[in-house]
Amino acid sequence: MNTVAQDMAISDRLAQLVADSDGDAVSLAWILEQLHERAFGLFLLVLALPCCIPFLYGIPQIVALPLMFVSAQILLGRRVPWLPQKLGARAVSTEGLGNLSRRSAPWLKRIEAVSRPRLTALTQAPADRLVGLGLVLFSASILVPLPGTNTVPGFAVVVVAMGLLQRDGVLVILGTLLGTAWIGTLLVAGATLASLIKNWIGL
C-alpha cells in the first residue's frame, strides 16, 4: 500500500475500498487483501459496522464468525490476520459495502475528530491480547438469536477497532466497557430466564 493510503482517514479508506472493488460482490478474503498493514483494525471495523444496524438480519450472521476468528488471532498474538478459505469466500455485495461506507462515514469522522494517540500501551502487545479476548466474547454475542442483539456488541467492536487504528487507549477502554456491560446484561438475562423456566416447570 502506498503512503497516501497509509495516511488516509479511516472513513475515506473505506470509501476507497468500495471504489477499488470490481463486480457486484467482493469476498472477505479480497477485502482483507486490500487492507495490508492496517488489516486487523480495518477488517474488524468493516466486519462490525453492519452489526451496528438495529434489527438487521443476514449480514451480521455472515460476518460474526470471521469477526470471532480474527479477534482470536489478536488474542493469540498474531500480527497479520488470516482467514481460512471457507470463511474468506463469504461475500458481501459491492452495493451493500458502498451503502455501509456512506452511512458510517459521518459517525467515523466524529470519532476520528476526538481520537488521538493516548494510553497507547493498550493498543499494542501484550495488552492487545486482553483486548482480543474481549473482542472474541463481543463477537460471539452477535450470534445470539434475539432481535437487536447485534447492535450493542457491534458498536463496541467498532469503538475498539477505532481505538486500535488511532492508537487511542481511551477508545479501547470505552469499547471494552460497553461490550463487557452487554455481556453482563446477557448473562443476567439468561440466568433470569433460566430461573423462570425452572420455576414454571416445577409448577
Name some characteristics of this structure.
203 residues, mainly alpha, 10 helices, 2 strands, disordered N terminus
Description:
This protein is an all-alpha fold and 203 residues long. The chain has one domain. Helices cover 69% and strands 3% of the residues. The protein is built from ten helices and two strands; from the N terminus they run ααβααααβαααα. Strands 1-2 form a two-stranded antiparallel ribbon. The longest helix has 34 residues, at 169-202. It starts with a helix and ends with a helix.
Sum this structure up briefly:
The chain has 203 residues and is mainly α.
Mean pLDDT: 83
**SS strand fraction:** under 5%
Sheet of most strands: 2 strands, antiparallel
State the total count of DSSP E strands: 2
- Helix and strand run: HHEHHHHEHHHH
Give the N-terminus to C-terminus distance in angstroms. 65 Å
Low-confidence stretches: 1-5
DSSP helix fraction: 55-70%
> What is Rg?
17 Å
Query: What is the general shape?
Result: globular
Number of helix segments?
10
* Class derived from helix and strand content: mainly alpha
Query: Biggest sheet, strands in spatial order?
Result: 1-2
The structural domain count equals 1
Topology overview:
Elements: H1 3-7, H2 10-20, E1 25-27, H3 28-35, H4 39-48, H5 59-75, H6 85-88, E2 91-93, H7 94-114, H8 127-141, H9 151-166, H10 169-202
Antiparallel strand pairs: 1-2
